[in-house]
Amino acid sequence: MMHEPGMDYFDRMREVFSNVSVITPENFSPRHQLKVQIQGEENTSEEKEFLSTSLNLVPVCRA
Questions:
Q1: How many domains does the chain have?
Q2: Do the beta carbons of residue 46 and residue 40 sit within 8 Å?
Q3: Does 31 map to a domain?
Q4: How many alpha carbons lie under 13 Å from residue 30 in its C-beta half-sphere?
Q5: Residue 6 above 70 pLDDT?
Q6: Does the residue 40 lie in any domain?
Q7: HEC readout, 29-62
Q8: What's the mean pLDDT in 1-17?
Q9: What is the pLDDT of residues 10-51, one digit of tens each?
């Protein structure tokens, strides 16, 4: 299970921290992109790998 906060998450951080930068997947080469592995049907060992389709935004906060 994965939780993805909304964009208001960063706005709430900006109320507390003097500087909030947001790092996006475009800051990195394709080699360093997040991938998602999905198990195959039950009783198989098949796995599939996909590039993550979520935004994958990471806040960097400075006081």
A1: 1
A2: yes
A3: yes
A4: 2
A5: yes
A6: yes
A7: CHHHCCEEEEECCCCCCCEEEEECCCCCCEEEEE
A8: 82
A9: 899 999 999 999 888 888 888 887 776 666 666 556 666 665
What range does the domain containing 53 cover?
A: 8-62
C-alpha to C-alpha distance for 41 and 36, rounded to whole angstroms: 16
Instruction: Give phi and psi for 59, each to the nearest 5.
Output: -80, 140
CA gap 12, 33 in Å, rounded: 26
Instruction: Tell me the CB-side half-sphere exposure of residue 45, using CA atoms within 13 A.
Output: 0
DSSP structure class, residue 9: H
